[in-house]
Design a protein that fits this description.
There is one protein chain. The protein is mainly alpha-helical. It has five helices and no strands. The model has no long low-confidence stretch (mean pLDDT 77). The protein has one domain. The two termini are 40 Å apart.
Length: 125
């Protein structure tokens, strides 16, 4: 039986990743470096950064990510701007990195315990 964790997902296309960071933000299931950087830059743009912080606050609340939700709530305050948003994106990227390493560790453990069987040997005459 195959699961989605059997093989690592391919790296996201650069333009798709930038789009996901700009439009989907924390709703995106996976962001690469370009998407995270786009999300940080968007946090520093007046008005747009506030809208993105509101969007990501909702996403983090739905995911149960209290720290991300709190940082995005701070980013809604105009004079704080993108600094809390940058911290929120770094928090999300670190979380995704930990999940990725845990998946890789499980893959190596599963590979060690489920080594392929040697070919059968037949008696010779």
């Amino acid at each position: 039986m195959s699961t989605m964790y059997d093989t690592p997902p391919p790296p996201p296309n650069f333009f798709v990743d930038v789009y996901a960071g700009a439009v989907h933000g924390d709703f995106a299931p996976r962001l690469g470096f370009a998407g995270a950087l786009t999300q940080i830059i968007m946090g520093f743009v007046p008005v747009i950064g506030t809208v993105c912080a509101g969007r990501d606050f909702i996403a983090d609340r739905r995911k149960g990510d209290r720290l991300g939700a709190f940082l995005n709530l701070l980013a809604l305050i105009p004079f704080l701007g993108g600094f809390p948003k940058t911290a929120a994106v770094i928090h999300s990227v670190r979380h995704m990195g930990k999940v990725w390493h845990a998946m890789k560790r499980n893959d190596h453990q599963n590979a060690a315990t489920s080594a392929p069987l040697p070919p059968p040997t037949y008696p010779t005459r």
